[in-house]
Here is the input.
Amino acid sequence: MRVAIVENTKVTHHGQVGVALHEAAARIGLYKPWVDGQLPDPADYDALVVFGGEQHARADDSHPYLPELARRMRAFSGADRAVLGICLGSQLLARGFGAENRIGTAPEFGWCSVELTPEGTADPVLGCLPERFISFQWHSDTFTLPEGALHLARSAGATQQAFRLGRATYATQFHFEAHRGVVADWARGFPAVMEGMSPGWLDRHPQEAARVGVEADLNGLMLARAFVARI
Here is the structure.
């Protein structure tokens, strides 16, 4: 199994997705286009995973590789390669399939409740989760559904939480890869940004992690394993 991973920022944790790929003995090709503009070719891989970043999906001036990354995600999907976009990755996947990116209109932060749609409950990947589940959120933007996409999940803060196109092209707005260790590292690395998203959250973090962190971690690993199985 050959899997291309695209990181969009300096600090990128693979988290539960990395665990599931390791369990499957996947061979990883790692790309950091914000450094050199290099992107994977569908002919070389069985799957593509695109993680998040601080930029928005239309930040072409500061990150000129974004339009090509969106096109490349669509090309992987068209070649029947499994595709996963998380947070910014989901927004870029929506862009690649002609949907609208809505910048700054849907802020969500912290461990939040997400609800599966009927299509999500029946989905071979997201259907492994409870109808209502906890996952970590950290975003300000959202998107419209691409034409032909199945709407799989929603939340109170952002209706478009997950969608699928075709056999195995998935987008999740929520950070299911972010287990408690990832969130703790983000808290150490970006305290001011987190406080800006949710004042007082750093003080609440230990209690929140104890209250819902284990459940969120289990949800994330189940989802990661289910996606890897589709590759």
